UniProtKB/TrEMBL annotation:
Necessary cofactors: Mg(2+)
InterPro entries the record matches: aa-tRNA-synth_II/BPL/LPL, B3/B4_tRNA-bd, DNA-bd_dom_put_sf, Phe-tRNA-ligase_IIc_bsu, Phe-tRNA-synth_IIc_bsu_arc_euk, Phe-tRNA_synthase-like_B3/B4, Phe_tRNA_ligase_beta2_arc, PheRS_beta_core
Family to which this protein belongs: Belongs to the phenylalanyl-tRNA synthetase beta subunit family. Type 2 subfamily.
Catalytic activity line of the entry: tRNA(Phe) + L-phenylalanine + ATP = L-phenylalanyl-tRNA(Phe) + AMP + diphosphate + H(+)
Protein name per UniProt: Phenylalanine--tRNA ligase beta subunit
Protein residues bound to Mg(2+): 356, 362, 365-366
Compartments where found: Cytoplasm
Taxonomic source organism: Haloarchaeobius iranensis
Molecular function as annotated in GO: ATP binding; magnesium ion binding; phenylalanine-tRNA ligase activity; RNA binding
Keywords tagged on the record: Aminoacyl-tRNA synthetase, ATP-binding, Cytoplasm, Ligase, Magnesium, Metal-binding, Nucleotide-binding, Protein biosynthesis
Matching Pfam families: B5 (PF03484), tRNA_synthFbeta (PF17759)
GO biological process entries: phenylalanyl-tRNA aminoacylation
Domain of life assignment: Archaea
Length: 587
C-alpha cells in the first residue's frame, strides 16, 4: 500500500476547517479509509492508502474527499478549461513501444514550497502505482515560460514535438546535472538514468520531446534542467508518455485536479498523432490515425446500480432521495432510473479523476462510506447452521504447530508476486511442467504495480525473498510457511488450479540436505505417512543434493540444497536447504 505524507495544516487550510485538531482529523481520515501510520519529523501525517483511490495521493485530493465528507461540496466537479494554444505533434519516428502522449497547460498556479513538495510527491506516487514505475506512464512537468513553441503545422499556435532519437543524436542538460549529455550518456552516467535505463533498454530509438530551442525532455527517464519547475513558476506544461492512452489520460486528470485545487487554470492541449502510427502492443487502446486529440479529457462516465443491491449489501433501508444524497456526498451525481424489468436503479455520473469506479459494487462502497460503516447495525445471517473449523484449516494449523515445534518461524507472505521473483530468480522455466514451481502463471490483466502481476505458483521464492531481506539478522534462520499457490489449468472451471503448499528453508553455516530431510521425516512420522526421497533434478537446487518428496507413493514436492546461483541472486552468503510439498499429501 502506498504511504503518503500529508501536512495537517494544509488539510485544514484546503478544507476550510481550521477548528479541526489533529485527533479529529485522524478520525475523519479513518472514515475515508486512510490509515494513520505515524508522523514525519516535520509533523506531517503518514497515511496508508488503498491503491484504488489514486486521486488521494496528494494533500489536495485528500482535502477534496474531506470536503465531500463534511458536506461542504456535493456532486461532480469538473474544472473549466481554456481552449488549446499548444499542440504536441507526434512524429512517426516515436518508438512504437511508447507511442502515446497527453498533456495540459496549467496557468496561474501558486507554488509555494509546500505546494511544490506535494506536486513532486504526487508525481512520484503516480509513477509507482498507476504508471508501474514509469513503464506504463511517466509524467513530465515543466516551467512553461522556459519553453519556446514553434508555430504549429496548421498555424493554430505553439507546438512541441514528440519524436524518437538515436542514443547519441542530440545533447541536453538533465536535471541534477551541470553538463550536456546525450540520451545514451544519461543512461550510463546519470544516477536517475541508470535507475530507469531498463525501461528503454530494448527501444530501437529513444523517446524525446523538443521545443523550438531543442531537446528538453527524455521520457520516461528524466526532464531537462532548462524547464525545471521552482516556487517561482506560475505557468506549467504537463506532458505524459506511455504505453496506453487511457492510463496516461487518467494520470493527467489526477494531476490537473490537484493543481486546480491550488487555484490554477487548466488549458487544453491538442495532440496531433501521425497518419500511420505503429503499436508494439496490439491489445492496447488505440488512437485513430491522423485524428487530433484534445486533452485533458475531463468528461464524466456513467454507471448504474440497483437500489435493492445497495440495501442488500449494506443491510439498511434507504429512501431513494437518501441514496442520491449519499452519492452526491461522495463526489458523484445521481438520478433515479428504472431498469428494463422496472426495478429502481440509479444513473450515476463519475468524475474524470475517479479511476477506481469500475463496477456497481464500487458505487455501493461509496454509499456505505458516506452513510458511515460504523453506523451500520450488525445483523445475524438468516441461516440455521453452526460454524466450525474446516478440515483443511485444521490440517494447516496442525502442520504449522509441528513446524514451530521443530524450531521454524511461521510466515504469512503475500500470494501475489511477479514473474521475475517466481521464476527467473529461482532459475525456473515456467514451461517445464514437471518441475516444482513451474507451470503457466495466473496473471493479473491490469495490475497496478509491476511487483504484483501474478499469483505465485509455489511458496519457496517468497521464503527466499524473506531471507534476502533479513541478511542483517543473526543466523541460523529457519523459516516456514503453509500457504496458497495456484497455476493456470484449462481443465478447471475457473481455469485456475489452487492448492495449499508447505515450504521451509534453513539458512545456517552448516546447512545440508540431511537437515531438510530430517524435518520431512519428522512431519511424515507425525502425520503417519510414508516418506521416500528418490534423487531428482531441479534448477533451483544443486545437482546430486536434490530429491523428490514422495508421500505414500505420490510425488508431491522437492527437497535439497539451494543452487549457488540462487543464493547469489538473493545476496545470501550462507548455505540454504529447503523443501516444498503439497499440504494435502499429509491428510
Amino acid at each position: 500500500m502506498p504511504v503518503v505524507d500529508v501536512d495537517p495544516d494544509a488539510l485544514r487550510r484546503l478544507t476550510g476547517h481550521d477548528e479541526k485538531d489533529d485527533e479529529e482529523l485522524k478520525q475523519d481520515l479513518f472514515g475515508l479509509g486512510l490509515e494513520f501510520e505515524g508522523e514525519t519529523e516535520d509533523g506531517e501525517f503518514q497515511l496508508e492508502f488503498a491503491p484504488d483511490r489514486l486521486d488521494r495521493l496528494s494533500v489536495e485530493g485528500v482535502a477534496r474527499s474531506l470536503r465531500y465528507q463534511y458536506g461542504d461540496d456535493r456532486g461532480v466537479y469538473v474544472p473549466n478549461t481554456n481552449d488549446a494554444d499548444w499542440t504536441i505533434e507526434v512524429d512517426s519516428s516515436v518508438p512504437d513501444e511508447r507511442p502515446f502522449v497527453t498533456g495540459a497547460v496549467v496557468r496561474d498556479v501558486n507554488l509555494d514550497e509546500a505546494a511544490l513538495d506535494s506536486l513532486i510527491q504526487l508525481q512520484e506516487k503516480l509513477h509507482a502505482t498507476m504508471g508501474r514505475k514509469r513503464v506504463k506512464g511517466a509524467i513530465g512537468i515543466h516551467d512553461l515560460t522556459m519553453l519556446k513553441g514553434r508555430l504549429a503545422s496548421d498555424e493554430r499556435g505553439n507546438s512541441i514535438r514528440y519524436v524518437g532519437v538515436e542514443a547519441d543524436e542530440d545533447r541536453f542538460v538533465p536535471l541534477d546535472s551541470d553538463r550536456e549529455l546525450t540520451p545514451g550518456e544519461v543512461l550510463t552516467e546519470h544516477q536517475t538514468g541508470r535507475e530507469y535505463a531498463d525501461i528503454v533498454a530494448d527501444y530501437g530509438r529513444y523517446p524525446a520531446i523538443y521545443d523550438d530551442i531543442g531537446l528538453f525532455s527524455f521520457p520516461p527517464v528524466i526532464n531537462g534542467r532548462r524547464t525545471e519547475v521552482s516556487t517561482d513558476s506560475r505557468d506549467l506544461f504537463v506532458e505524459m508518455t506511455g504505453t496506453d492512452q487511457w492510463t496516461i489520460d487518467k494520470m493527467l486528470n489526477v494531476v490537473c485536479y490537484a493543481l486546480d485545487a491550488r487555484g490554477a487554470t487548466i488549458e487544453e492541449v491538442t495532440v496531433d498523432y501521425p497518419d500511420d502510427p505503429v503499436y508494439a502492443d496490439e491489445s492496447v487502446e488505440r488512437v485513430d490515425p491522423g485524428v487530433d486529440v484534445v486533452r485533458p479529457d475531463l468528461s464524466t462516465s456513467e454507471k448504474h446500480v440497483a437500489h435493492d443491491r445497495i440495501e442488500g449489501l449494506l443491510g439498511v433501508n434507504l429512501d431513494p432521495d437518501e441514496v442520491v444524497d449519499l452519492l452526491e456526498r461522495s463526489g458523484l451525481d445521481a438520478v433515479t432510473d428504472e431498469s428494463d424489468d422496472g426495478a429502481l436503479r440509479y444513473r450515476v455520473a463519475v468524475p474524470p479523476y475517479r479511476v477506481d469506479v469500475l463496477h456497481p459494487l464500487d458505487l455501493v462502497d461509496d454509499v456505505g462510506r458516506a452513510y458511515g460503516f460504523n453506523e451500520l447495525d450488525p445483523q445475524y445471517p438468516e441461516v440455521g447452521t453452526v460454524g466450525g473449523r474446516h478440515a483443511r484449516s485444521t490440517l494447516e494449523d496442525a502442520v504449522r504447530d509441528q513446524l514451530v515445534g521443530l524450531g521454524f518461524t511461521d510466515l504469512l507472505n503475500f500470494h501475489m508476486t511477479n514473474e521475475a521473483e517466481n521464476y527467473e530468480r529461482m532459475r525456473v522455466d515456467p514451461d517445464e511442467h514437471d518441475c516444482v514451481g513451474a507451470g503457466e502463471p495466473v496473471t493479473i490483466t491490469e495490475p497496478y504495480s509491476e511487483d504484483y502481476t501474478m499469483i505465485r505458483s509455489w511458496a519457496l521464492p517468497s521464503l527466499a525473498m524473506v531471507l534476502e531481506n533479513n541478511t542483517h539478522r543473526s543466523y541460523p534462520q529457519d523459516i516456514a510457511e503453509v500457504g496458497f499457490a495456484a497455476e493456470y489449468d484449462a481443465d478447471e472451471d475457473s481455469y485456475v488450479a489452487e492448492r495449499q503448499t508447505v515450504a521451509g528453508a534453513l539458512a545456517r553455516h552448516d546447512a545440508s540436505y540431511e537437515d531438510a530431510k530430517a524435518v520431512l521425516q519428522s512431519l511424515a512420522r507425525d502425520f503417519d505417512v510414508e516418506l521416500e526421497t528418490p534423487p531428482t533434478d531441479h534448477p533451483s537446487f544443486i545437482d546430486g543434493r536434490t530429491a523428490s518428496v514422495v508421500l505414500d507413493g505420490e510425488d508431491v514436492g522437492v527437497v535439497g540444497e539451494l543452487h549457488p546461483a540462487v543464493l547469489v541472486e538473493h545476496d545470501l552468503e550462507l548455505p540454504v536447504v529447503a523443501f516444498e510439498f503439497e499440504l494435502e499429501a499429509l491428510r
